[in-house]
C-alpha cells in the first residue's frame, strides 16, 4: 500500500518502529525495524533516516551472537539501500560483523550482498567475495560478481 500523505507516512513509520522496539531480542528489533527504514530511505526525511539507521546499528551491536547480528544487519542493509550514506554505514557494520562471524550462514549472507553491491561498488563487492570461506559459496559469489561486471555499461 502506497501512502501519499507525508504526515501519515511518518506516523506509520513511527508506529512500525515502536512495534519493533517493543521486541526483546536485538536481531528481531533490527529486522522488524528494517521495513519502515525502507520507507524512510525512499521518502525521507534524510536526517530522520540517518538517526534511525545509526540507532539500529547500535542495537544490532548489542546482539551477542555474531550470525544473528550479521543477519539483522543484512536485512537493514537491503532496506536502507536506496540511501547511499545509510547504505555505507550499514555495510561497514555488516562487514565488521562478518569479520568475526564464520560458517556457511555467514558466507550465504555475504554472497547475497555481492550482486547488488557490485552494481554500485565492484571493488567492495570483490572484498566481500574474498571474505567468503567456503569454496562453493565463493565460486558462486565470484560468478555473480563477474556477471554484474560484464553486464555493466562501459
Class based on secondary structure composition and strand pairing: mainly alpha
Helical content stands at over 70%
Oligomerization category of the chains in this entry: single chain
The portion of residues forming beta strands comes to under 5%
Q: In whole angstroms, how far apart are the ends?
A: 37 Å
Total number of helices? 8
| Helix-strand string | HHHHHHHH
Q: Please, could you describe this protein's structure?
A:
With 154 residues, this protein is mostly helical. It contains 8 helices and no strands. The protein has helices at 6-21, 26-43, 46-61, 66-80, 84-100, 104-120, 122-131, 135-151. The N and C termini lie far apart (37 Å). The model has no long low-confidence stretch (mean pLDDT 93).
Comma- or semicolon-separated keywords:
8 helices; mainly alpha; 154 residues; 82% helix
Topology summary:
Blueprint: H1 6-21, H2 26-43, H3 46-61, H4 66-80, H5 84-100, H6 104-120, H7 122-131, H8 135-151
Helix pairs in contact: 1-2, 2-3, 2-4, 3-4, 3-5, 4-5, 4-6, 6-7, 6-8, 7-8
In short:
The chain has 154 residues and is mostly helical.
Amino acid at each position: 500500500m502506497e501512502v501519499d500523505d507525508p504526515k501519515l507516512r511518518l506516523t506509520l513509520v513511527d508506529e512500525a518502529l515502536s512495534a519493533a522496539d517493543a521486541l526483546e531480542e536485538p536481531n528481531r528489533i533490527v529486522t522488524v525495524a528494517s521495513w519502515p527504514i525502507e520507507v524512510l530511505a525512499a521518502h525521507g526525511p534524510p536526517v530522520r533516516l540517518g538517526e534511525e539507521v545509526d540507532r539500529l546499528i547500535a542495537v544490532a551491536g548489542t546482539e551477542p551472537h555474531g550470525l544473528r547480528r550479521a543477519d539483522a544487519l543484512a536485512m537493514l542493509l537491503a532496506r536502507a539501500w536506496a540511501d547511499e550514506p545509510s547504505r555505507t554505514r550499514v555495510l561497514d557494520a555488516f562487514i565488521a560483523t562478518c569479520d568475526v562471524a564464520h560458517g556457511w550462514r555467514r558466507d550465504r549472507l555475504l554472497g547475497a550482498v555481492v550482486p547488488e553491491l557490485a552494481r554500485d561498488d565492484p571493488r567492495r563487492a570483490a572484498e566481500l567475495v574474498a571474505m567468503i570461506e567456503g569454496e562453493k559459496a565463493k565460486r558462486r559469489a565470484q560468478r555473480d560478481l563477474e556477471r554484474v561486471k560484464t553486464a555493466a555499461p562501459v
